[in-house]
Amino acid sequence: MWMVVLSAILGAFLSVKWLLKRVNWWLYEAKLGYRQYSLPPGDLGWPFIGNMWSFLRAFKSRDPDSFIHSFVSRSPLFLYFLLLCSTLTHLLRYGEVGIYKAFMFGNPSVIVTMPETCKRVLNDDDAFKPGWPTSAVELIGKKSFIDISYEEHKRLRRLTAASINGHEALSVYIPYIEQNVVSALEKWSETGEIEFLTHLRRLTFRIIMYIFLSSESEEVMEALEKEYTALNYGIRAMAINFPGFAYHRALKARKSLVAVFQSVVNERRKEGKANGSLKKEDMLDGLLGVRDEKGEGLDDEEIIDIMLMYLNAGHESSAHTIMWATIFLQQNPQFLAKAKAEQERIVKERSPTKEGLTLAEFREMKYLSKVIDETLRFITFSLTVFREALIDVNINGYVIPKGWKVLVWFRSIHLDPEIYSNPKEFNPSRWDDHIAKANTFLPFGAGSRLCPGNDLAKLEIAIFLHHFLLNYRLERVNPESRVRYLPHTRPADNCLARVKRLTPSPPNKY
Predict the structure, then answer these.
(1) Which UniProt keywords are listed (predicted)?
(2) 180 versus 239: which is more confidently predicted?
(3) Which pTM does this prediction carry?
(4) Which terminus of the chain faces fewer neighbouring Cβ atoms within 10 Å, N or C?
């Protein structure tokens, strides 16, 4: 009798589970008709939630790559269960195919994990457009680079590129970046224990705020940096606009940031009218004064969304990369010695009458550039970017249906042992003879939407490491601190450490 009851309960449980697992198929796959049989291998997970629980579970564990591995490696027992419970026998095609279907961030999606598939998605602007989650678009801005059309993106990029990455602009930024790095390192060395990442974020935020707004107010910057922290946590959160959720807090933070930036833009426009022209002392003046071939400028919403985007990306990625590069060099004395020797040579060869770094010296930092590239590869600050199929797209024999999202999974490429030997080993020297094949190194994306601030970011990172290597060392309080992977890879203690000076403090030239 009990066996019958247990069998009935088990049967009911399996039936309910089977029905629930079919909901997303009914909603998104069945209506594709015969095209459903050409979808990439994978599954759309549970109703509405999709694969997000397994994604979050993996990235909150010690093995974030288990999420993708769950698509690549399916056990024979799992495959047999699929064969019994599903008429979709094409689901048995799991393996290292580099393209998988899933349900991510509220949308039916395809994840691509190999250079060839990523190249197609990132470079084919006729077939794919930006497809960022609703939460990211609402928070960063509908007129920022992440959601505008290809033509509009080209226009805005052309208008703003010189202010961000131009040779003249980079040369102008060096003294200010260097001044703040030298001052911050000296201050930290006298403070004792600090959260190294937190202080780096404040430093990089100060720099990007000055570059954009000429602002050096500690009170204003501290308040805005806190708002950006809340904003950043909400960008990759589920779009639940309810008190207590990250997305709700992030929306409030965006509202505060927009209000601040709007008041600054209003004041600048007012000053421009009063003086007859803009001073063009910072990037905001440049954005206000820029004109296209038709004589048209940017409206306030475009300017604010561009600023909000750059200020977020321009301090978060740089701070995290600086922290990890510093940690990795301290953990590997042989690489630290080589990087330091290069910086000592650059200073030694400098003219006695010359003070401070130059753009030419930055471009001589060949080994330090490899350290930075290896850090960017190893950490992969942005693990994915989002696109959306504009038409039905055929890739490697599979169909990506029109309207489905596509997630270009950078992390899988950067940690692929077929591309990088011992990929989970930090080794800047791997770049000595490495000839990078197309779309195997994507820290700033690729194609027409390559991150426009990549040169500025690498300049900022290099200037910090230059002064750190010459004069300081890092002593972590908890070197075995657990690593967290969301929203970005970092130690759980934000790298609690002491910054120790190696030599007596020289007079501050700045």
Answers:
(1) Heme, Iron, Membrane, Metal-binding, Monooxygenase, Oxidoreductase, Transmembrane, Transmembrane helix
(2) 180
(3) 0.87
(4) N
